[in-house]
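Your task:
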Amino acid sequence: MSHPPKEKQMPDELLIEEIDRDGAVAEATAELRTTRSGLLRRVGLVAGGGLVAGLVPMALSRAQSGTSKNDVKILNYALTLEYLEAAFYAEALEKGKLDGSIQNFAQVVADHEATHVTALEKALGSAAVKKPKFDFQGTTGSKKMFLSTAKTLEDTGVSAYQGQADQIDSSAILATAGSILAVEARHAAWVRDLIAAGKTPKPAPEAFNPALTMKQVLDAVEATGFITS
């Protein structure tokens, strides 16, 4: 089994595939990738963002009565990503290694992720996937590791939501996903500003953002080893 990299080995631009490759969640992610029922029973990864209080529950509740099986799958996919990010930010705050503007960023985003989790759980009801257990491989133990990993998660979240836009059946769910994506993108720009630390930041490095399929995201999450059960 590989060991998580030491802080001094971490590059400024952390790639999600570089965090860990021990395959700790191969069984769970394989099931998620291949069956809808598996996605309802097990866990996956993603994304962040926050909205005005009440907006997400309102939109989701309108779609709840006629939610298709496909949309349930996508909502659970989003929920597992929100579980991941909410846990990451919560642990970083608990570690007490952050301060100043970085701590403020972590607190704001943590609140957004927790709000999304609550809204998605309420919308899915008994169909919601179970919250997994996590091991963040020491990435919440220092400012540099935290910022690098936060950037990776936020970028992945944007691309994950974007990748499902044309797969969603319900217009209400699509509107909610678009709202979350927009705030996720703000998170990604914010963390880039913090990483720049006085240098010229590049909050929007590209004119177009690449979308990721569900399989691509789940493969990337599996490679981190962040989800342990």
Notes: Residues 24-222 form one domain. The helical segments are 26-34, 36-41, 55-64, 69-95, 100-124, 143-164, 171-196, 214-224. The chain has a mean pLDDT of 79.
